[in-house]
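User: I'm preparing a small set of examples for a lab meeting where we compare how different chains pack in three dimensions. I only have the primary sequence for this one, and I'd like the structure in token form so I can line it up with the others. Please keep the answer compact; I'll paste it straight into my notes.
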Amino acid sequence: MEVLRSAASAAPVHQVSDIPRVIRLLTQSAPSTQRATIEKYFTPSASFTHPVCRTGSFEGSRWLIWCIYRWYKIMSPRIEITIDGVAYDEKNLTLYVNIHQVFRIWVIPFFKAPVSLVTVLKLVRYPPLPRQPSYSTPISPNDTAISSSHRSTSSEKPLYFIQSQNDLYQVNEFFNFFSQFGILSGLLLLWQFVATALCIVGATMFWPISWVEQNVIGGNREKSIGDAVRG
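Assistant: Understood. Below is the structure token output for the 231-residue chain.
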């Protein structure tokens, strides 16, 4: 998640090594450090998306991200968090971070929510590559994440900033926030097995449709059912 101070070809190595430290700054540090981290590594128009809240993207939306992280830390002052893995899509400037955490709410005794999630981080490059548009809100020269030593020539190593963060949870993981002892997650697990059984029943009962698709239509690439009926 850090601003990456390496050449694009070397970016993945530096991102993997830097991400755990920056995530811990966002989730486990003092309020002033937490805010400084957001202002340093997120663009001014960065967006944040979570199953229960979102900010959208507009000039100044980074402040909303700080408010979300601050309330998150107020609710759970001591957060256990582990980075299980990081993948970097260099072509699309996207980071995928596999995380698991234990979330506790201090006003509810004995409550804890062990959850796993994948955080998707969209990055932007500064300066942008030639002939490529910059992101929607250009970073100000006075932005705290950019020092004057990194703004002069095209030969300088690029910086990367977070333009959006999207936290993705499986439904059963999300239920852990609202149900102690995994009750809702257990009910969902039971329903998922039932749904799998229904898929087996459906695939068995309607096998002629698959036969027609395979032997008459030839799959999605050839023709539709309507075309097959019309000959």
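A couple of notes for your slides: Strands lie at 42-50, 53-54, 80-89, 94-103, 113-126, 159-168. The longest helix spans residues 183-205.

User: Perfect, thanks.
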